[in-house]
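Q: My labmate handed me this sequence with no annotations at all. I'd like to see what the chain might look like in three dimensions before we decide whether it's worth expressing. Could you predict it?
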Amino acid sequence: MSKTRAIAIANQKGGVGKTTTVVNLAAALSELGKAVLVIDLDPQANATSGLGLTRQPGVSLYPVLTGTADVADIIQPTPYENINIIPAEVDLAGAELEIARRGNHLEAVRAALSRVFESGVFDFILMDCPPSLGILMTSSLAAADGIVVTMQCEYYAMEGLSVITSIINQMRLNGANPNLALDGILMTMFDGRTRLAADVVAEVRSHFGDLVYNTTIPRNVKVSEAPSFGQPVVFYDPSSRGAAAYREFAREFAARYEAC
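A: Here is what I predict for the chain of 260 residues:
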């Protein structure tokens, strides 16, 4: 791979499988031999706990953003080979206020992570963005090479896509990230027993075509159970339908970037 790819996994709506996707995509990519850095940007720290770590005061991107810590000292190993993480903690919520005081707030996350981006140590950096349209999310998007949107297979979830595409256009036009692109849409929580889920997928594909991944993530009890054990479902129950779907998605995800 020619460069580190920084991908924001984003949706301003919560409960659409965003963090679950970050954790399991990282796990499945690690099985493919990819070196992955997860950046947990949500003060709730669900990606942190989902990879088996506990929140620790001062161990997040917050002190890096405020210039009181070096990013190399914040990167933590996980129990899983090829996966490292910059965890989240409650104080990360204060980053919004800290960044807002700066005139160049859109550049804050990019500046904090510049050494990581340039190091070439990781194949993929997966940024788990908070479910909001705040400064921390927009600064993260300004630092990303691309965005993958997770979308629940329900009609009301479609409204969020227009918001994301609008943000991408604003980032390009104002020069914050001229090359930012919507790299893909992953349909999550797919229930094959309902006509509604299939109709939503078909409608999204009709509007966004090949941007929609072929893989859909099914509703699966093992996917829901795994976080309580601090494990990705890929490792918690490798033979489950959820694990199989995330492995398939990881192969499709990696192939898109390797083709670039």
